Structures are given as structure tokens and as C-alpha cells.
Amino acid sequence: MPDGEKDRFGDKLRDAEKAREDKFFADRDRELLQKLKAQAGAQEEQAVRDLARMRCPKCGEPLTVRHKLDVEIDACPQGHGVWLDSGEVDKLAERESSGWLSRFLGRAD
């Protein structure tokens, strides 16, 4: 076998090895980029949650806390609505037995 053929075969082996190496690093880089994008997306979502927390969904004003009948109510200062945390509706309904809230919740006597 002439030296030229031997060198071409060696070049092909080196090229194949280089291609496998390039693919390995390309795959690894793709995985790292996907992880970074997922982390950035999660951080962005958390930032939006933090900005929206305790704000009126209609106008964006910070909600004010009011106390009615020993229940803490979050209210829009512009009058766009009130929000109750879990269990607070039940507390209000317990205090009135024949009002609209009890009828709405199916608790009227």
C-alpha cells in the first residue's frame, strides 16, 4: 500500500473522530442552552408573579386590606372588586344565615 493511501485512510479516521467530537459538543451545548432557557423562563414567570401580587387584575393598582366582620378583605382602591382568601367566604357566610351569600353558597335555613 503506497504511503499516500495510508495517509488518506488516517485522514478519514481523524475526520470521523473530529465529526463525532463536534457532534458531542454540539449536543452538549444544545442541552445547556435548553436548561438556560428553561431557567430564564421560570425566572421571568416568577418576576411577573411578584409584580402582579396583591394588585387589581383590572387596573393594576395595589390592593388595600380591609377588615369586615373579623375577615381580611383585599379590595381595589378604584372599586373594581374585592378578593377573599381561602376560607374567608365561609367565615362571612357563617355570620349571616339568610342573606344572599348564604343562599349563594346553599346554606340558607
What's the total helix number?
3
Distance between the termini: 103 Å
The fraction of residues in strands falls at 5-15%
Number of domains: 2
Globular, elongated, flat, extended or rod-shaped: what is the shape? rod-shaped
Instruction: Please describe the biggest sheet, giving its number of strands, its sense, and whether it closes into a barrel.
Output: 3 strands, antiparallel
Order of helices and strands: HEEEHH
**What is the arithmetic mean of pLDDT?**
84
Low-confidence stretches: none
Radius of gyration: 32 Å
Please give the number of β-strands: 3
Q: Please list the strands of the largest sheet in the order they lie side by side.
A: 1-2-3
Helix content: 55-70%
Structural class: mainly alpha
Question: How would you describe this structure to a colleague?
Answer:
59% of the residues lie in helices and 11% in strands. The chain is mainly α. Strands 1-2-3 form a three-stranded antiparallel β-sheet. A hairpin with a 2-residue loop joins strand 1 (64-68) and strand 2 (71-75).
Main features:
single chain; 109 residues; mainly alpha; 2 domains; three-stranded antiparallel beta sheet; 3 helices; 3 strands
